[in-house]
Request: fold
Amino acid sequence: MKFYNELNQSQFKYNYRLTRGHFDTFHMHHGMEFLFIFAGSLLLVVENRIHHVGPGTLVLLQPFQLHRVEPDLEKDYERTVLIFDPYYMENRLQPYPQFHRFFQYLWKEKLPVQIIRHPMIEQLFQHGRDYLFNGNVNDERSEQLTFFVKSVLQSLNWIWNTLDQAAASTPSLRSNHYAECIMKWIDQHFHEELSLEQLAALVHLSPYHLSRLFHEATGSKISEHITARRIREACFLLKTGSTSIKEIGERIGFPNFSYFCRIFRKHTGMSPREYREIY
Reply:
């Protein structure tokens, strides 16, 4: 798992890419993320679900939301990623109470839909590709991106109640079903001592068979997903409370303090103490 903090120098970070796909790991971002796919397709793992996402689609990801993106290696893949600081955007929406409430909902609530296809959204991102997503983020570009994000949010506000929420309950392939069951169980029990044998028994498979199915469905090892979930919880606790770092490690399943600090630094690039001081 990787933790990306692209917003040290600016309120925005964007990246446009036209390339053949590459294999990615579970990761999360400090800011909100808009991922728009212009061409190609990808497998997305988010909120313990596995989705196949095609062109013309916006993926909305919340801060610190674990996800994994695996583009189809057989096709050209064109996408743009725009990450922005939600606190920055919240301040600019304060004069508009209804709009501000909708943004708070997108930012902080559990969303029934995070994969969105709509002509209005597609048109906005095509415009962004043609005129915005190039060069560095300077003051002028930051102002333009602020209005772009407002336009996307306004469009989402208009169309939200019309979106097809069936995507949230689309039946899974059988192999995906096993992986999703395990991810949901890990999400509830990550703080406990877990073993592959224990997880395999939950779905009545051998440890080897479960490991193979999980890797085929998500591209990740079960142990990597457990660690990613624990680090996500550690980031949340460090940012929002005053619990001691040692106790946080114990709470999330790392009773050995030095091991917790080593794993946290490996995945975030900083110590738990440094992370708390920054955020």
User: Anything to note?
Assistant: The chain is about 50% helix and 20% strand. The first helix runs from residue 86 to 93. Residues 138 and 257 are 41 Å apart (CA to CA).
